[in-house]
Amino acid sequence: MHRKPATIFWALTVGTMLWLMQTLPVPSEERPPWLGNRAGISDELLAPWTPVEVKDTTISVWGRSYSFGPLPLPAEVTTAGAEILAGPVTLHCTADGQPITWSAGGRSIVEHFPTRAILRFSAQGGPLRCEGEVTTEFDGMIRCGLRLVPVADKITIENLILEIPFKSKHAVFMHSWPGRWGSAANSHAVPPVEWQSAFKPFVWIGDYERGLAWFCESDENFFPASLNRVIRVRRDGEITHQRVELIGKAQTVSQPLRYVFGFQATPVKPLQPDAWDYRIVHVGRYGLEKQMFSPPGQAPKLLLDYLAEAGVKTICFHEHWSNIQNYPQAARPEELHSLVEACHKRNIQLLLYFGYEMSNIAPEWEKYAEECLVAPRAGGYKRQPEQTAYIVCYRSHWQDFLAAGIERIIREFDIDGVYLDGTSEPWGCTNTQHGCGYTRPDGSIGPTYPFYDTRQMMKRIYTIVKHHNPAGQVNVHQSTCMVIPTLAFATSYWDGEQLQSVARPDSPTKLLPLEAFCAEFMGRNWGVPGELLWYANGPFKWEEAVSMALLHDIPVRPNVDRLELFRRLWRLFDEFDRHASQWIPYWQSSGVVACSHPEIKVSLYNRPGNGCILVAVNVGTEEIQADLTLGLSALGQSDLTIWDVLTDKEIGPLGEKMPLKLGPWQHAIFWLKPRRS
User: Which of 89, 100, 211, 649 is deepest in the core (most CB within 10 A)?
Assistant: First the structure.
């Protein structure tokens, strides 16, 4: 294991960034105790990840490996058992009228620990030399710092393009960020010909099981021919090219050009436990442990008892646990202690809300607002009690404030984790007071998307939670923002609020196509368990949202009034032992189940010896009557009887065909049980 001290390269390491954050000018005469604290800062390997391994120029982490060629960029990426690239990630360059061919100049291991490895590269390309360091962390995030150095006093670069060549069979879906509120359009199938966009700081391309994300904090030193065609994704037979145009207009260069690119292959960690295991409801409030509830047809009982009996394992307590938005101070401390104790007696975890804002009634507002908020100022949300909250940037000192506050609250109240609202989003920011933004050639300030600092915030929170309780949760609410270098440190995510204010479409897939759901909402391809968000006043009926979710093996987070279905499903999955089964999604089920109508989609859980659970959904706009035919031998099953989960009734033995009648976006759930003699 190599333990050479890492020399400081121009691309800042995480440690250097933290040091800089702690030495930023503090707009205060007195240094508060939280400033510069090290809560959650650790160089330990966190579960469930495995140590970083290095062999020559191949780096392996949990579930993935990256190999490197002459450039400080991935040459091969293997994830979920498949090599997804068609060739090395490379820089296509023309300088002084000649295309550049890169040749290796030197490679070395600078640092290797269980949590990270740093490799150094140099490559020669005619009038240019490419120098760089690649840092790979245990969750598979790799940071590639490049410096293009002109060999002569001055050269002209006519074009410079970063290219990521995917095998087309793995380039099925894509997700880019930022998205747009009111739409799922930033998650979709890879177009059959070409997709093009202005600069976006994050693009992920992959399939149902895996993918690769590219990200970049800003477009500094980008000189594209057209601002609207910086990123292009183009299919060319068996290869799908993602191209990022760094230089499209000739630039005369006499000083080094610097770029930092991030990559991360997905899935980032195992999917167990998942959202089905966490069983989350969003009902936290002061006095909940004393509140009575009258279930239909039953005598009144304590609501907490009803939730525990139904199978609830997690309760989220939203922002009103504190009188100040996103502030680590309980409004009613004694009542919070009482609630935590009551939840723990029933083996229910309690998560408290933290978010992405700073309130103008926070005691720190006057001294820290200008330095800590994103610029231009954003948010301005009215909260209760009366206050206005603005979006904060975690490149600022507010990272220290939040980390220290969460650690203190967890210790004081013995909570089981946090529910984070937007905390994982690296909001675009031009606030130069804390190091965001860059100066463009015309003197204006371009935005920075602080991936690495937001990632550090998330990593600190995950570390704090897991130190207190290894089974604790970091549940993240985000919408349109599957930014995996930050979201890797979530135990699960809740997605869908971006669609809740939209008018109802003719069909749910008009607003949320199946391709978008597979790309963004399913979680399987990311390695972070997902849940679908549903509001009663949103565009989807409850049954429609449940149909969409169940088809993709994720739950809709229920409220108390909608708990009955999930009570049944939780008990069903426990009895069936879902984790011991094989999930066969609708895009792979044609070999084991056939339907007489193409708009009936079927996903199933198969466990030979214990039958299979079948989820059928009509994704069409008309009522459909169809027949299902199961390939029992292919499933390793025989002699099954049909149990209707929704009615909790036995239908009878499974015959040659299984008749089915479903209205538009209706679902049916059956447990096909082995018949017992």
Answer: 211
Alpha-helix residue ranges (DSSP H) falling in 388-489: 398-413, 451-468, 484-487
Name the E strands within 19-127: 53-55, 58-61, 64-68, 74-79, 82-83, 90-95, 98-99, 103-113, 116-125
Task: Give the residue-averaged pLDDT of 202-208.
Answer: 98
Fill in the DSSP letter of residue 1: -
The rounded distance, in Å, linking the Cα atoms of 527 and 125 is 38
Strand order in the sheet with 658-662: 593-595, 624-630, 658-662
Beta strand segments in 178-224, E: 187-189, 194-197, 202-206, 211-215
Q: Which helix (H) or strand (E) holds 143?
A: strand 141-150
Tokens (6 digits) for 52: 């970083």
| 543 backbone dihedrals φ, ψ, rounded to 5° | -65, -35
Q: Which residues contact 483 (CB under 8 A, 6 or more apart)?
A: 177, 202, 215, 424, 425, 426, 451, 454
Per residue in 439-462, is it b (16+ CB within 10 Å) or e — as a string? Answer: eeeeeebbbbbbbbbbbbbbbbbb
Residue 100 CA, chain-centre distance (Å), reads 37
Task: Note if the bond before 385 is cis, omega within 30 degrees.
Answer: yes
DSSP bridge pairs for 229: none
Among candidates 279, 270, 301, which has minimal Cα distance to 349? 279
Give the tens place of pLDDT for each residue, 357-376. Answer: 999 999 999 999 999 999 99
What Å distances lie between residue 419 and 91, 284, 456, 563, 613, CA to CA?
Answer: 41, 11, 17, 20, 31
Partnered with residue 132 across adjacent β-strands are: 121, 146
- Give CA–CA dist 483/381, Å, rounded: 24
Nearest to 526 by CA among 555, 489, 557, 498: 489
Distance between start and end Cα atoms, the chain: 60
Cβ pair 576, 601 in contact under 8 A: no
Q: Cα–Cα distance between 288 and 128 in angstroms, integer?
A: 66
Sequence letter at residue 177 = W
Own/partner pairs for 141-144, CB < 8 Å, 24+ apart?
141/262, 141/263, 141/264, 141/455, 141/485, 141/488, 142/59, 142/66, 142/74, 142/262, 142/263, 142/264, 143/11, 143/260, 143/261, 143/262, 143/452, 144/72, 144/73, 144/260, 144/261, 144/262, 144/263
Identity (one letter) of the amino acid at 240?
T
- How far from chain centre, in Å, is Cα 161? 27
8-state DSSP, 520: I
| pLDDT-based confidence at residue 21 (cuts at 50, 70, 90) | very low
Query: What is the spatial distance between Cα 203 and Cα 483, in angstroms, rounded to a whole number?
Result: 9
**Is cis: bond before 51, omega within 30 of 0?**
no
Strand partners, 76: 67
Return d(Cα 260, Cα 246) in angstroms, integer: 12
Burial degree of 640 (CB within 10 A; 0-12, 13-18, 19+) = buried
With the C-alpha atoms ordered 159, 161, 165, 166, is the resulting torsion angle positive or negative? negative
Mean pLDDT over 291-295 rounds to 94
In angstroms, the CA 599 to CA 586 distance is 11
For the packed helices 14-23 and 398-413, what is the interaxial angle rounded to 10 degrees? 100
Instruction: Return the pLDDT at 29.
Output: 58
**410 has pLDDT over 80:** yes
- 434-493 confidence digits (pLDDT tens): 999 999 999 999 999 999 999 999 999 999 999 999 999 999 999 999 999 999 999 999
Is the separation of the CB atoms in 665 and 599 below 8 Å? no
> 146 - beta bridge partners?
132, 259
